[in-house]
């Protein structure tokens, strides 16, 4: 076989016809969107919607400039830079069908660690209308106990004192908005694309709190001028593997250093509140609604929580991927019962959505055998995911007298996982979590105090003070530590005592 064709703008014409590619003039695009956090999800979601738009109408003001703030983003910056910011989206259908598409909407990339001033200037540039974010659940720097912006974070302190060379996204946004205000430019929209509840309201609150620490007038201006639409975002994008890169080489003889894999399903529900205009994403199935809250709650507490339920129980049991869990009848039954018995009763109804059908679709999506979504990805940073995905459901059920047993078993299994960093057979589990050490230490103390894990306040707040929760959780801890084969306990929970 010939040398594979490297993905870049000038080689695109040599790409095989089965790979669809941008036919719009990328050199004409200006970057109306600056996106912070270019991972698999952004590349499978916002950049994909924007590519569809650019392909179908003249929307040349809506190109995307990707931004990475941390050293960890260097690899993405380098690979995308070498490919003229192009990449291949590999959409894997459950029946094995695969669609491949080169996405062209990202046309530039800046790395904050190398040149913070360049990122601030780009955000402050007149053509920038939207700064969108995927900075993960933990990126919002919220104190779990108070729900407020955590100013004790040393990086926050650093950013207050070094406004022109910030480390965190809040410092960048504040510096850029300050420049715009001084230049008499309108504010951009700050659009969160993260899985956090009321993501727009949250970034609004914390950005204003941060700005207030630097400049009270700026904080007021931000509060008044910047729009922060809430949004629900959805598309499962597993970690790209070597075999995905290999697939493009062997099937098409093309070389993409970092393609993205995703499922066919996609959903984006957005509040229509933008400071300086927005792309016509509605022409490509994004939904603009007045109030996104019921949608985001449904998604966080069913899809994301469902992922965590399977991710944690499946990891301890020894499974590797979500689809493997779902193929096990016991696991899919547990998931469905968790949805029905604990998650749904505390959800608000969503207009136009049949929750039963939504839940059935989730189980089908999780079961997509081509996606092979790794449990390690799902469990990554559980300490910032569970407070958003699962703990609100537990709290609401405690208040309403509802069931908490499904979720309590998951937390007990997470304690075991954090204690042993291994599955029930002693096979090591790869644990990536900012609070890994704190969780490990707290979990280790379980033998002396069965509630010790619950004392990681950043995650659980005061949950252990609830007597009913403490009792149920202790029972689950006893079960899991007596026998880490969680399936026996899952059966027990499903059957009811
Ligand atoms: C997953 C999400 O890691 C996780 O928490 O639940 O990344 C999930 O795949 C996406 O939110 C799907 O939209």
UniProtKB/TrEMBL annotation:
User: What is the enzyme's main class?
Assistant: oxidoreductase
Record-level GO BP terms = mannitol metabolic process
Q: Which UniProt keywords apply?
A: NAD, Oxidoreductase
**Where in the numbering of this chain does the Mannitol dehydrogenase C-terminal domain appear?**
291-480
> Which InterPro entries does this entry report, sorted A to Z?
6-PGluconate_DH-like_C_sf (IPR008927), 6PGD_dom2 (IPR013328), Mannitol_DH (IPR000669), Mannitol_DH/Oxidoreductase (IPR050988), Mannitol_DH_C (IPR013118), Mannitol_DH_CS (IPR023027), Mannitol_DH_N (IPR013131), NAD(P)-bd_dom_sf (IPR036291)
- Mannitol dehydrogenase N-terminal domain location, by residue? 32-282
Can you tell me where the transmembrane regions are?
A: none
Q: Which domain of life is it from?
A: Bacteria
Molecular functions (GO terms)? mannitol 2-dehydrogenase activity
Statement: the UniProt record of this protein carries the keyword NAD? yes
Task: State its Enzyme Commission number(s).
Answer: 1.1.1.67
Query: What Pfam families does the entry give?
Result: Mannitol_dh (PF01232), Mannitol_dh_C (PF08125)
In terms of PANTHER family, this protein maps to: MANNITOL DEHYDROGENASE 2-RELATED (PTHR43362:SF1), MANNITOL DEHYDROGENASE DSF1-RELATED (PTHR43362)
Which protein family is named in the record?
A: Belongs to the mannitol dehydrogenase family. UxuB subfamily.
| Full protein name | Mannitol 2-dehydrogenase
Q: Which organism is it from?
A: Neorhodopirellula pilleata
């Amino acid at each position: 076989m010939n040398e594979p064709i490297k993905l870049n703008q000038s080689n695109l014409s040599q790409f095989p016809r089965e790979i669809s590619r941008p036919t719009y003039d990328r050199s004409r695009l200006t970057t109306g969107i600056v996106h912070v956090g270019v991972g698999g999800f952004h590349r499978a979601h916002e950049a994909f919607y924007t590519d569809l738009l650019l392909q179908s109408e003249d929307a040349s003001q809506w190109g995307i400039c990707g931004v990475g703030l941390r050293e960890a983003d260097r690899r993405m910056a380098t690979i995308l830079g070498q490919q003229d910011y192009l990449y291949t989206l590999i959409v894997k259908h459950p029946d094995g069908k695969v669609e491949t598409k080169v996405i062209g909407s990202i046309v530039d990339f800046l790395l904050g660690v190398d040149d913070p001033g360049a990122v601030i200037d780009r955000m402050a540039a007149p053509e920038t209308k939207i700064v969108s974010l995927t900075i993960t659940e933990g990126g919002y720097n919220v104190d779990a106990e108070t729900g407020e912006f955590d100013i004790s974070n040393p990086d926050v302190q650093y950013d207050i004192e070094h406004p022109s060379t910030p480390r965190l996204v809040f410092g960048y946004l504040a510096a850029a908005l300050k420049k715009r205000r001084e230049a008499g430019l309108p504010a951009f929209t700050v659009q969160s694309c993260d899985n956090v509840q009321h993501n727009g309201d949250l970034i609004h609150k914390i950005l204003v709190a941060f700005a207030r620490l630097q400049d009270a007038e700026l904080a007021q201006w931000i509060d008044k001028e910047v729009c922060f639409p809430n949004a629900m975002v959805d598309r499962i994008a597993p970690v790209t593997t070597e075999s995905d890169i290999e697939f493009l080489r062997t099937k098409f003889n093309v070389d993409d250093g970092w393609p993205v894999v995703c499922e066919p399903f996609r959903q984006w529900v957005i509040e229509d509140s933008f400071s300086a205009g927005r792309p016509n994403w509605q022409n490509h199935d994004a939904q603009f609604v007045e109030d996104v809250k019921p949608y985001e709650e449904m998604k966080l507490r069913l899809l994301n929580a469902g992922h965590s339920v399977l991710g944690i129980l499946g990891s301890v049991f020894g499974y590797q991927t979500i689809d493997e869990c779902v193929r096990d009848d016991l696991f899919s039954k547990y998931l469905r019962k968790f949805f029905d018995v604990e998650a749904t009763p505390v959800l608000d109804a969503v207009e136009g959505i049949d929750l039963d059908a939504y839940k059935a679709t989730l189980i089908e999506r999780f079961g997509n055998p081509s996606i092979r979504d790794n449990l390690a990805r799902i469990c990554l940073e559980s300490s910032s995911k569970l407070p958003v995905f699962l703990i609100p459901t537990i709290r609401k059920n405690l208040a309403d007298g509802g069931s908490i047993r499904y979720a309590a078993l998951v937390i007990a299994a997470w304690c075991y996982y954090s204690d042993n960093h291994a599955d029930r057979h002693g096979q090591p589990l790869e644990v990536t979590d900012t609070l890994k050490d704190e969780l490990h230490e707290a979990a280790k103390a379980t033998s002396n105090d069965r509630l010790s894990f619950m004392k990681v306040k950043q995650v659980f707040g005061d949950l252990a003070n609830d007597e009913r929760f403490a009792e149920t959780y202790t029972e689950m801890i006893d079960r899991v530590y007596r026998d880490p084969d969680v399936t026996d306990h899952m059966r027990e929970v499903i059957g009811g005592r």
